[in-house]
Structure formats: structure tokens, C-alpha cells
Specification:
The protein has 3 helices and no strands. With about 90 residues, it is mostly helical. The protein is elongated and about 70 Å long.
């Protein structure tokens, strides 16, 4: 494999990682900001109030996004297998 191919695979792997992680991270961000605003308004600074809704929200997003996530990972895996098949065998 050439260095360009390896860099391309690494770049694609980073992109797939960002795509797969984006829904849960976005959910955690939105819920965290909403809960922080709510806590600032009510002046209730309890850690479990912030933790429980975020963990439930992220779990729900992971379940809902699972088919899409599996399709992205499947496409990346098939792309890698295709690249492996293109590599010439050693003499």
C-alpha cells in the first residue's frame, strides 16, 4: 500500500467516526445546555438532575440512529474490504 492510500483510509476512518458519534454528541450538547439553563433559572444545582436526562436522551438517540449508524459502518467496512482485495499479493 502506498502512503497516500493509508492516509486516505485514515481520513475516511476519522470521518466515519465523526459521523457515527455526531447524533449522540449533539443530543448530549442540546440537553446539557437546556438543563444548565433550567438549573440556572431555578438555582437547583443537583448533579443527578443533569446526569439522568442526558443519559436517557443519549440512549434514546443511539437506539433511533442505530440503523443509519450500522449502514455507515457497513459501507466503510465494505470499502476497506474492497481496498484489501485490490492489494497485489507478495511474490
Amino acid at each position: 500500500m502506498s502512503p497516500e492510500q493509508i492516509i486516505d483510509i485514515g481520513r475516511e476512518a476519522i470521518w466515519v467516526t465523526m459521523l457515527v458519534g455526531a447524533p449522540s454528541m449533539a443530543c448530549a450538547l442540546v440537553l446539557g445546555v437546556a438543563i444548565a439553563i433550567l438549573q440556572a433559572l431555578t438555582q437547583v444545582q443537583e448533579a443527578t438532575i443533569a446526569f439522568v436526562p442526558k443519559i436517557l436522551g443519549v440512549a434514546l438517540v443511539l437506539v433511533v440512529a442505530m440503523p443509519w449508524t450500522l449502514e455507515v459502518l457497513r459501507g466503510f467496512t465494505l470499502s476497506l474490504f474492497g481496498r484489501i482485495a485490490e492489494v497485489p499479493a507478495l511474490p
